[in-house]
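Before surveying the methods themselves, it helps to consider a single example record, giving the amino acid sequence and backbone structure tokens:
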Amino acid sequence: MLGRLGSKVLGATLRVLLGLGLAACALPSADLVGGAGPGGAGGQGGSDACPGAEAPLLLEPVADATLDENDLATPHGDELELKVRSGDLLQRALLRFDLGGLPTASIICRATLELTPVMPVSGPLEVGYHPVTTPWVEALVTWGTQADAYGAESAHVLLEHDRMAPYYADLTADARAMFAAPSANFGWLVKARSEAGAPLSTWVSARTGSSPPVLQILYSVP
């Protein structure tokens, strides 16, 4: 227990230190897919230009959970992994971030979500990111209560077979909307784009796992 906690604190510290030097730098655009223009998310965050940018804000989820079609009424918010699966027994992942740490007048230039695999993907799998449309509680949420409460796809990423490096999705437009209306910030749902296809699955680290998801926000304050 102590070793895991120590590793998590050290990892978070390193990400913060690294983030201080990234205000004018692009994240790996090759991993970003979806929408028009480079960077995805409908092209809303394709440019890294951010005049007067502050040091990037690096956020870990305040809540996350897996929704499992095989366990319609069983919560899975206390696990170390988030799971996404297509095919016979579907799984979807939920994540929510608190944007309250941004100054009130902030302009979000770019918001990029990083997910890190903790198990090799069983085959090439495209996943889509969708804004969630209703509230949920990590300890209580289940497939039966939340599986279909999401909006249109904001971005998508191709997960490559056996790749264990982090993946990035540009969710700038969603983050702007969530920041503008905090009461409607219910986070994102991540699901296979083609759930009717072959049984394929991926596991990524949850917020309590070894490499928690990170939402990096590049912003400026007028």
In short: Residues 2-220 form one domain. The radius of gyration is 17 Å. The first strand starts at residue 57 and ends at 59.
